[in-house]
Every structure is written in C-alpha cells, then in structure tokens.
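Possible race condition, two jobs.
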Amino acid sequence: MSLDKSTLEKVANLARIKVKESEIDPLINELNNIMSWVEKLNEVDIDNIEPMTGVSDAKLRERNDEVNDGGYQDKVVNNSPESISNSFSVPKVIE
C-alpha cells in the first residue's frame, strides 16, 4: 500500500491535524516506510504460535478494600462557599 498526497491530506483533515505544505512530502515518505514495515510483519509465520496475553506471570499484590477518608469531612466541607447537609452545594448547570 502506498500513501499519496490526497490521501494524506484527507486523513490529516479527518484527524484535525494541520500539516504544512512543506511537511507533506517528508511525511508521505516516512508514513510509506512505516506501512512497508507493517506489511513485512504479515510475512511472519505465526501458525503454531499461541496468543500471548501478557509478558509477565507476576501477580499483583492485593490489599484490603478499606475506606480511609481521613475522618475530617467537616474541614473539607468548610472550604465550600455553600454547603447543604454537610455536602458541597454547586449551581445547577443543566436547564
């Protein structure tokens, strides 16, 4: 697959990427090199290879799920310009 100027401009427009006219030719060459490298990966024989779900068999350490809010809710709510029932009160944003 080869990338041309019109395709690059269309993709850049769809991705909302501004590409200067002076950058188009070098970018086309670079992207074509990347595409040819990806096409070479299709030549690799993977028929007898098991899918890999991860690169490490390490297990993550688990911890108890304990609530630790610091125990100073009143001090936090005092920072609010307005509070109702010990909670922050904010203006309505949806009509």
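Job #2 (started ~2 s after job #1):
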Amino acid sequence: MLPFVVFVLFAVSMAGVTGYMVVSSEFALAKGNSDGAEALTVARAGIERFVAEQLGTMPDTVSYALSDGVAVVTARKVLSQDSLSDLYYVKSEATVTDRLAPDVPARRIVGAYATHRRRPIPHYATVMIGADRIDVGNGGAAHGRDYHNLPDCSGGGASRITGVIARATVTEGDGNDIQGSPQWETWSGGWSAMLDSIRVRWDVLTDPHFPVEFENTMPNFATLPSDSFPVIRYTGWMGTGAVGRGVLIVDGVFDPWSSFSWDGIILAGHVDDIVQGEIDGILVGGLNGPNMYSTIDFRTDANYHSCFVYAANESLSYLELMPNTIHEVF
C-alpha cells in the first residue's frame, strides 16, 4: 500500500511540475511576442518622430525614450536628387526590456526612405504677400537683383528674381522702386496656391508644440557664431525694432518699427503696412491667408540677398517620408 501511495504522490508532483513548465513556457512565449510587438511599435514611432521634428541641421543619431522602450534613429545620405534635395535612408532600432529578463531585451529594426528638403523655400520674389494690392513707393523699394553679386557663398551671385508678387495689383512710385525679373507679378491662384508653391510647413512651424530655437524672444546675436541663422518664432502681433538674422516666423501680424533690420527670411501670417525698417533677404506674408489687410503700403527697403536667404533657408530644412517605404529590417 505504501509504495502505491508514494507512486501516486510522485505522479501528482510530476504532473504539477510539467504543468508549471508548460504554463511558464507559454507565458514566456506570449511575453516575448508582446515585447516584440511593442519594440516594433517603438521603432516605427522613432522614425515618425525623427521625421516630424527634424528642422535645420541633420543629426546623425538621435535616441528617444518611447513607452517602455528606446528607439535609436540614424540617418544616412544616399544620394543628391537635385540642387535642393537629397535622398536619405532612416533606420530606427528599438529595444524593449523585460524586467524579468533584463539581459535579453526584445529588439526590432525599421527602415524608411525620406527626401531631405535642404532649402525648401524657392526664391520667387523679394516681397511676396497674399494681399490684393501692394503699393511700393514713398522711400520704399523692393529689389529682386542680388545685392551679394559675388560667388563667395552658397547661392552668391544669383540671377534676378521678381521684385514683388501680390494677388491682383502692384504699383510703384517713382518708377525705380521695384526692380527684378520681372519687376512684379500677380498670383492668380490666391493665397492657398502661394502657400502650396513655397512648400513651407506653415502649420508645423506655427504649432506651439513644435520646437524652435527661440520663442517670443530675440537671441543675443553677439554670442552666436557669425554663420548662425537661427529660427525665431513670435506669437500674435509683432511690432519690433529688432536687428538680427535668420528665419523670423510671425504667426500673427508683422508690423516692424523704423530701427528694424533683418538678414534672411521673414514668414508672416499677416502683414500690416510696412513703412519702416530694412530687409536684406525675402519676405513672405499672408500665410494665414488671405492677408487681413487687402492693401499694403510698402515703404521700407527690401533687397534680395542670396547669401542670407540660402543660409536662413537651410535652417528650415526638413525631412519628408517617401510613401510606402517603411519596412522592417531583419
């Protein structure tokens, strides 16, 4: 009798051990599958965040802590597509650590191709405003000839561009206030066509959650390298006498004072009469469209300066994922 009892206890014990091993194995398998799926999600999220937040200088490697994992994103140039864009291969390697087995994290890799818009804004005109009428004169000027006519910088010695573009009408005072090739044009497609044509990510650049270098404040340019053309964003109405360089984004109304002087690119949601200041670069306004003031009295000096525009434009460079190219790398 005793041997039989021992045998039964042994059989029950073995059954329990086997059951535990089966359940444990199934749990580990399910946990591994779950961690692998999460790692794949983290890898895709890493690529999408990298592309969404990229502005200006292209970093080689960036790490993001996402959910329970980490995505390490690398970008490598594949080829130059043309003078304004490059093809990049972007790879995101994600790891998700299992607290029960920290030495064996789940790992997934995702890759994709993207176009790098190095200098996204084309040089259409020195002054381009989505207003019905722009009147240039009374001491003001809009010149589309390159004021830096030497090829000693990127874009130096560029061809003439249009002086002024409006929606319907452009007028000038003494006959020499507007220069360019041609002097002026009208944009019959309206402000939305203008926005599409300049390829600026206006909704992204004006989003308060999108990071820029300086928000509602001017940097101390004396502390910046001379070749630095930062991105500066102001919210609402901007009346300013600032002297600076780079990309100035005004999501409200741009209305400069007499001491205002800017080298580079100005992007504005709306433009009021500009009767003071100086611009060496290009001004694009009315991006909230159409411009809230239908007629613009333009009495400042705006001169196309290719070197400043090229340098500022590179600060706006961004990545654009090519459709249907995201894939898992095995």
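The longest helix spans residues 2-53.
Logs attached separately.
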